[in-house]
Amino acid sequence: MVEGVDLLLEQSFQQAVEANEGVALAFAGLVYVYMAGGKVADARKAAQQAQSLAAGTTRREQQQIEALALWADGKGPESLAVI
Fold first, then answer.
1. How far is residue 23 from each of residues 17, 20, 27, 31, 74, measured CA to CA in Å?
2. In the chain, where do the E strands start and end?
3. Fewer Cβ in 10 A, N or C end of the chain?
């Protein structure tokens, strides 16, 4: 990522989480940002949060969350298959 943009994205998704901790896609956004920044442990934690909240989302959103969780778990090819 472009330096600065990654920080802005992380801050934006973190603000979304703080505004409403029940939004699965805010946690999913953090998974992407953390993985792109090499913060795998943080990405896995955010993925677990997103998955725990996914029941209230659409099928497509659930698939995106699942794909990101697989990616965070080191299962890149499997994550692509979900999309």
1. 7, 6, 7, 13, 24
2. none
3. C
Chunked mean pLDDT (size 10), the chain, 83 residues = 73 87 91 93 97 93 96 94 89
Phi, psi at 70, each rounded to 5°: -65, -40
3-state helix, strand and coil shares in percent for the chain, rounded to the nearest 5 = 80, 0, 20
Residue numbers of the domain that contains 66: 5-82
The structure's pTM equals 0.87
How many other CB atoms sit within 10 Å of the CB of residue 28?
Answer: 25
Specify the pLDDT at position 2: 54
Whole-angstrom distance, CA of residue 42 vs CA of residue 9:
15
